[in-house]
Amino acid sequence: MSSTIFIVDDEKNIRRTVRMVLEGEGFTVEEASSGEEALARLPEVAADVLLLDVQLPGISGLDTLERIAKLKSESQPTIIMISGHATLADAVRATKAGAYDLIEKPLDRERLMVALRNALERRAMAREVEGLRAMAEERSEMVGQSAAMLALKAQIAKVAPTRTRVLITGESGTGKELIAKAIHRQSALAAKPYVKVNCAAIPKELIESELFGHERGAFTGATARKRGLFEMADGGTIFLDEIGDMNLSAQAKVLRVLQSGEFSRVGGEQVLKVEVRVVAATNRDLQAAAAAGEFREDLYFRLNVVPLRAPPLRDRADDIPILAAAFIELACRENGMKVKTISAEALAVLAAYSWPGNVRELRNEIERLVILSEESIGVGDLREEIVAEVARRRRDAEAAPAELPRVELPAEARALPLREFRDHMEREYIRIKLDENGWNISRTAALLGIERTNLHKKMRALGLSRDNQGSAP
Ligand SMILES: Nc1ncnc2c1ncn2[C@@H]1O[C@H](COP(=O)(O)OP(=O)(O)OP(=O)(O)O)[C@@H](O)[C@H]1O
Ligand SMILES: [Mg+2]
Fold first, then answer.
1. How much is the CA Rg of the chain, to the nearest whole Å?
2. 139, 359, 363: which to mutate for ligand 1, most atoms within 8 A of CB?
3. CA 237–ligand 2 middle distance (angstroms)
4. Atom 23, ligand 1: which residue's CA is nearest?
5. Which of 58, 213, 345, 347 has a C-alpha 20 to 30 A away from that of 92?
6. Which of 354, 360, 346, 319 shows the shortest CA–CA distance to 442?
7. Which ligand 1 atom lies nearest to the CA of residue 179?
8. Distance between CA 318 and CA 436 in Å, rounded?
9. Fold of 162-309
10. Fold topology of 316-401
11. Which tens digits make up the pLDDT trace of 80-128?
12. For residue 171, how far is its CA from the centre of ligand 2 (angstroms)?
């Protein structure tokens, strides 16, 4: 597709020359003779680059530029000003308003082409960056509609706008980092720095200097003064990830910052002060660590103002289908493939698997499937151990009756005709299984060895729902 250049000049000759030159170079050219006309036609022309004369009758070129800059539409053209006798003040004003370049008249063909190519190149790059940014944003979107996830999102929405400290706990891969980011993004500090520290990844000897910085000569190798992560996060949020792995001496310093906002750089005397919101996460049981003397109890209490728990994936199996769909789409797009599909049976197996590595494991499995499978992902494509575990569970569910003890039936039950007795028993059995699984349909169905839709049908027929838990009619 050829790029569109929009030339706005009141001199007909100039428009004609520019059109000739640019059409010769393969561009599409549109023209307007005033700022008013340019503004009116801007949406329809959808120009990539606007060549805008500074001196125009009616509203001037610079005013036109400023108005366009305020439009904030995605289809903003990149603007190059052209001028007969621009003053320095004009040039400054144009640059401030976001003009990309300014070319002197009479227009030199080479100069014009260079300016245009640069503008188009920068435009393409900006688009790419925007695309990457959108993708990164999407990668950190929290997917999930299960009761557990909705409750978590509601909690995040409540704590985010406050400045309160949050301690996020949960197994590995449950999305603790996403929660921390969501808190920052939904807070009043969203435009301020967000600094993430992986306390487990920084060597013990370096953590203090990473967190608080150091003065020149504080230790061998400290050849210059260095700012620490707390300083960099000033005014914003610091996310202390894997805080359970921080050593006791660093913990003491962190405690001091939490108490007073004060700290000193390693090897420094000067007391610095910061205002930082602290969000921490760990997959360890900090209370137990505190009891064992591995984690400062006072720090634990300071951090744990609002506890948030990221639920393990097996407790929200209802989310597995939408998570899988979201990851399939993302992986296909990132790899420039057409979006693949997944069979209902494969999805049922994914939903019944226990996911010890939680969402991260699911995501990795999906990425592998997207790369290796054909158009549609089937059960045969799934990782061996996933299929084996689910098959084992289904077998166990089927095999169980063999070892059942004999049941004593109450007289009321024995008095029922077979059909009513059977309905009653089935209802009781399903209700108990649903209760055991927090009324999670996917998981219960998988454990019963039936399809989800089938379970729904049965529940309807037996009058079972979460609110009406099927007391016998
Ligand atoms: N609700 C969710 N929606 C979409 N993606 C998710 C969700 N939860 C987790 N993920 C993805 O799963 C992966 C692991 O998430 P994250 O790194 O936040 O987990 P974690 O709890 O911090 O794990 P660890 O304790 O191992 O550090 C990431 O790729 C993340 O994008
Ligand atoms: Mg993490």
1. 32
2. 359
3. 16
4. 173
5. 58
6. 319
7. 18
8. 15
9. Rossmann fold (3.40.50)
10. Helicase, Ruva Protein; domain 3 (1.10.8)
11. 999 988 788 888 888 888 899 999 988 899 999 999 999 998 888 877 7
12. 9
Q: Please tell me if the CB atom of residue 170 comes closer than 6 angstroms to any atom of ligand 1.
A: yes
Q: What's the mean per-residue pLDDT of the chain?
A: 89
User: Where in the chain are the domains?
Assistant: 4-135, 162-309, 316-401, 406-462
Architecture, CATH, for domain 4-135: 3-Layer(aba) Sandwich (3.40)
> Beta strands 213-214 and 226-227: pairing type?
antiparallel
Instruction: Please give the model's pTM, rounded to 2 decimal places.
Output: 0.64
- Residues in CB range of 360: below 8 A, 6 or more apart: 172, 173
Alpha helices in 73-175 (DSSP H): 88-96, 109-139, 147-159
Amino acid at 228: G
Q: For residue range 7-16, what is the model confidence (pLDDT) as tens digits?
A: 999 999 999 9
Pocket probe mutation, ligand 1, options 178, 315, 327, max atoms within 8 Å of Cβ: 178
Cβ-contact 431, 469 below 8 angstroms: yes
pLDDT at position 472 is: 44
Ligand 2 centroid distance, CA of 340 (Å): 29
Distance 179 CA to ligand 1 centre (A): 9
Q: Look at the chain and count its residues.
A: 473
Nearest atom of ligand 1 to the alpha carbon of 326: 4
Q: Look up residue 160 and give its two tokens.
A: 């985010």
Are both 4-135 and 316-401 of the same fold?
Answer: no
Q: pLDDT (tens digit, 9 = 90+) per residue, 143-168? A: 998 999 999 999 999 999 999 999 99
| 3-state helix vs strand vs coil in the chain, percent to 5 | 50, 15, 35
CATH match of 406-462 with 3.10.105.10: no
26: left (phi over 0), alpha (psi -120 to 50) or beta: left
